[in-house]
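Reviewers of the previous submission asked for a worked example of the structure-prediction workflow described in the proposal, so we include one complete record here. The input consisted solely of the amino acid sequence. No template or homolog information was supplied to the procedure at any stage.
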Amino acid sequence: MNLFDSHTHLASSKFEQDRQNVIARAFGAGVRRMMVCGSDLTSSRAALALAQAYDGLYAAAGFHAHEASQAILTESDSWRIDEAIIQEIATLATAPRVVAIGEIGLDYHYDFSPRDMQKSVLTRHLQLANELNLPVILHNRESDEDMRHVVDAIPPKAGGVLHCFLADQQMADWALSVGLYIGVAGPISFKNLTHLAPILRTVPPERLLIETDCPYLAPHPMRGKRNEPAFVSYVAGHLARVLDMTPEDVAELTTANACHLFGVT
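From that input alone, the workflow returned the following C-alpha cells.
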C-alpha cells in the first residue's frame, strides 16, 4: 500500500522508548509518508528534527489550542500575542521539510487555554500561514461557529485540512467552501459515530485525507491501545467500506491528495 498518514504526533513522549521502531513499523506497513505536527515551540522543533532525520517524514509548526496561552504575553490586566514566539515559529516554518502551519485551532471541550486567547493565536497563525504561503492543519472541537468566523476572516490562501473531522454536514460543507480538506481518522471506525459515514460520502474524493492523530484515537480493532502510524491502514480500510472502494485505491487517492495539499512528492 502507498499510505500517507497526514497527522501524527511522533514527537510525543509516548513514543520516547520506541520511536525508531514505531517509524520502522509504519514503513513496513506501507506508510511511505508521515506528517509530524507541532503543538508548541518545543514539539515543533522536535517535529522538524524528525523530518530531517527520516526520508518520508514532513513537519508542521504551530501552537495547538491547548497551548495557546504559551504564545501570550500578559501585562497587568491585559495580554497580547508574543510576537517573538510567533517569529520563532516562522523561522521553523521556513526550514526545508516544514510544509504546513499546525496543529492550530480551537478546542472548547477542554478549554485548557482561554477561548479569547485561542481565537487570537489561531488568527495570528492564519496570518503567518498566508505570509509564508503554507497550508494549515486545523483542530476543531465543539467550536464550529467560532472556527468558521475566524477562518472566514482570514481564509488560508494555500488551503488546509480540518483534521480528525467529527462535526456535522454544515461544517463539512463550510470546510469545502473555504478550500479545506477533510481529515478522516480512527473515529470513522467507532460504533457511536455513525453520522460520519453519510457526511464523508458527500465529500469530493479529491478532498479527503487519512490520518491517525497518533498516539491518540486508535481505530478499531486497535482501539484502546496507543495509536501509531502503521494503524492508518485500518483507517483506509474503514473509509474504503464507506466509499465502496478498495483500501489500495483509498491509499492511492488520499496519498495523492496529501501530496498535493502539502506540496510534496
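The two ends are 16 Å apart (CA to CA). We consider this example representative of the routine output the project will generate in years two and three.
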